[in-house]
Amino acid sequence: MTARTLKSHYNVVVVGGGQAGLSVSAHLREQGVGHVIFEKNRIAHAWRSQRWDAFCLVTPNWQCQLPNFHYAGPDPKGFMPRDEIVAYVEDFAAHIDAPVREGVGVLRVGREGAGGFVVETEAGTVTADAVVMAISAYHKPQVLRVAERLPPIITQLHSSAYRNAAALPAGAIVVVGSGQSGCQIAEDLHLAGRQVHLVVGSAPRCPRFYRGRDAVEWLSDLGQYDMPVDKHPKGEAVRKQANHYLTGRDGGRDIDLRRFAKDGMQLHGRLMDVDGTTLRFGDDLVKNLDNADTVYNGICALIDRHIADSGIDAPAGEPYRPVWQPGATTHTLDIEVAGVSTVIWATGFRSDWSLVDMPLCDQDGYPRHTRGVTPIEGFYVVGMPWLYTWGSGRFLNVGRDAEHIAEHIAGRRATWADARSGVSLAAFEI
């Protein structure tokens, strides 16, 4: 499709060919609204190129519920590995015959006169009545500034560039960050027999299985994935909360950092500074481990109450009890003495909406919107964590948000058609 010449005008331009953009496309087609998807790379690019070899979903396959294309494989309670995830997204694109223009990066989106938009791409400039930004919120790898002070001999990479233990130089490895990626990469290295130093932050953790079921099943029954952000106890602040860490590897299991430490992994508090070959850590390791376990046990207690209130016959469960406690740890690590060759920055991503040449974001750089509908008439965002619910940034609920946006577009299309002189409503039909 990339060989085709771009049209000068599209009714709707969708930016991003991942599961969010494709979901919008599926619902726009149902609404009879013409559109195009511009994808800078390839369909499912992030899944394909920013995940390590042993990566798999942390949510069970049955939660893969793209529009009219739910997971239909033999293992609904399993966890798809990376390549199967890519195939699932690609098969969805083929299923809906998505009008994707791969290899067409968007450079700028701005207003065109009194109404509509101008979209500048690597293949030319087009106009549109509406634009949907389906580019998630994870745009640029984020690395701490102290990385600049590490000795040049140390190999540094972001978690999105990690593939496997064998691809790294011999020696010990420091993983900075204990969110989902950091913990799973630390586990991957640990299982490969590498000496790992994990810098532990404040991310919470969740049980994989509890009282006879995957915790995700219990939480789904409790409506946790469908709770709107405006009804969450933390409100919009929940959007900045780190995801709970656990894994779907080998059929799924807890990630217990204390057990890793008992087996030889070295745990440290938050990285505070780099001084030559010395890393300096905060005095918060005990607090961070305890807080993660408190969240874990809080989820278990929530499930316990649900089971009791509903009279469900389920196996007994017990709260987590620590299997290891930090001793009299020092707050420094000499990476030369420890034989460290590599530092992996599992420190997340930062959002970059600079290609949107309009007043979209608030003072914190977050797009202003209500369930993806921004204050800019005809401009939308989708596929972001907690766009509307916990499931918004996942295969589970991204289709529901896409449907909401497509319906909003369909309801406004007559107004936009009238605003563009000489363009009839029929121009919106596929």
From TrEMBL:
Which terms are listed as keywords in the entry? Oxidoreductase
> Which InterPro entries has this protein been placed in?
Auxin_biosynth/cation_transpt, CHP04046_FMN-dependent, FAD/NAD-bd_sf
User: What's the domain of life for this entry?
Assistant: Bacteria
- A GO molecular-function descriptor: flavin adenine dinucleotide binding
Mind telling me what this protein is named? MSMEG_0569 family flavin-dependent oxidoreductase
Which organism's genome codes for this protein?
Lichenifustis flavocetrariae
